[in-house]
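Checklist before submission:
- one chain only
- standard amino acids only
- sequence pasted in full

Submission:
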Amino acid sequence: MLKALLRNLLLPLFIFNITIFSVTAQDTLVDTVAVRNIWDFGGTGTVNFSQVSLSNWAAGGQNSLSALGILNLYGNYKNGKHTWNNTLDLTYGTVKLQEQRLRKSDDRLELNLKYGRQASSKWFYTAQLNTRTQISPTYTSERDSVISNFMAPAFVLASIGMDYKPNPKLSVFISPFTGKFTAVLNQRMADYGAFGVEPAQRDLEGRLIPGTGERLREEFGGFVNVRFRNEIFKNVTLQSKADLFSNYLRNAKNIDVNWENLVNFKVNKFLSASLFLHMIYDDDIMIDVDRSGDGTLDGKGPRLQLKETMGIGFSYKFE
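Returned file contents:
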């Protein structure tokens, strides 16, 4: 049942058009087996929980409750020299601190589509499309404005190049021709130049002119994508993905970095623990900084962004 659910979910996203013509019941059976052999579906789903309860605790602290859900699905096609690798990754987390309202702690949606045609035993001619965004809005601590939302931002990479696959554990994709697009579909955020898009024009008095900010930033350059997955110890699996992008048209020496590392610890069939570390550096994304060192944010500048999550919870593997 789970395999059928995965197939129904992934096929509309990843298959351009597959029509099976059947003349007899035997032909239908043969075609069904053929589709099953060239397609491989699967994935993992994990829900992690964390809870802290305090009573007369002299050292202080806050009661808290948090939950984090991670869903990784894949649908891979292989037929002769042709391959079609597709992944969908969803992450969503919430946290509740004592008397404060429920807040979002993590939010990520990523879709990756990659077509390859075998050129040699280890090299493939490859075209890849990668999209990253989030599911729901993120607010300021006062909840008076939105600082990010679905498709605000969205990062899209469209690449053509060569993929080196020496073994099933490692893939190194090299593309000298890559278009990178940053979309900020929220006009108010675009007017302020969020996530590197061109901000709104200003009037004679220096005030922003609403609606004049660009909602799409376009870049063209070189791209390297490295993916690695291996069981480094018994019941301990490492998944690592590094994206490197250089914009040929502006500051080519400045490399945009997106590096994700996920370590899964399998306790048994249904229990697991995970450690996730995410690092981003993009000199077009400005972060609030304290330039004077007085504890007040008084400027903006590019900075290394870090995110780390760890949890233990329920896990299930789809096969």
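Reviewer check: DSSP finds three helices and 16 strands in the chain.
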